[in-house]
Amino acid sequence: MNAPDSQTCFSVIDGIIEAGRFAHARGWVPATSGNFSARIDANRIAITRTGRDKGNLTEADIAVVDLQSPLPPGLSAEAPLHVARYQASAHIGAIFHIHSPASAFVSRVHESQHQLLLHGWELEKAIAGVKTHEAIVLLPIFPNNQDTVTLAASIEERLQRTDNAAPGYLLAGHGLYAWGHDTREALRHIDALEHLIALQDRWNSKHQGITA
Ligand SMILES: [Zn+2]
């Protein structure tokens, strides 16, 4: 395995620190919640250690993890959800996870439907590959589960057979995951999805019985 060049490592860690600040400033990662990761190379990712303030991350708060080895101690219990996504797609370069009030609440409201359909919003075009507000973007919702290894397996099984899925998913009563080919795209996706979730929920509550 080639060592990551230092430039790649720097930009990955900088991207995580920037995303942490961005999410913290918006109240999306209360009480050290959430976790942020980015790919260094084919076999390695950088990921935030457990219990760190996402608004004030430094290099010491970020661990480098080998995707093929057992996870080291000190990571978030949710690290298996990140690892499973990177293993499923070589195109994923960064994954961000937040506990925003909107994503925690809306995912719980819509949990029995197992998905939230985003439709009719200009902001959908912030999602890679979406060209029109007329697109229907499916955001999967999974029940929350403290056994994150089992949860990761059920998430990956469903994502592999889901078309038109957003680059993200909701965990009911918990929060939002989103990814992109690099830290910049992952940040754009989590920002867009966070807004789209709130918009769609407001629309659905005003138009009960009329869904996309
Ligand atoms: Zn979480």
Please characterize this protein's 3D structure.
Helices cover 35% and strands 20% of the residues. The protein is globular and about 50 Å long. The protein has helices at residues 6-25, 79-88, 101-109, 148-159, 183-206, and strands at 35-39, 44-48, 62-66, 94-98, 115-119, 136-142, 168-171, 175-180. A hairpin with a 4-residue loop joins strand 1 (35-39) and strand 2. Bound molecules: zinc ion. Zinc ion binds at residues 33, 78, 97, 99, 174-175.
List key phrases describing it.
212 residues; L-fuculose-1-phosphate Aldolase; 8 strands
Structure, briefly:
The longest helix is centred in the last third of the chain and has 24 residues. The protein has 5 helices and 8 strands, in the order αβββαβαββαββα.
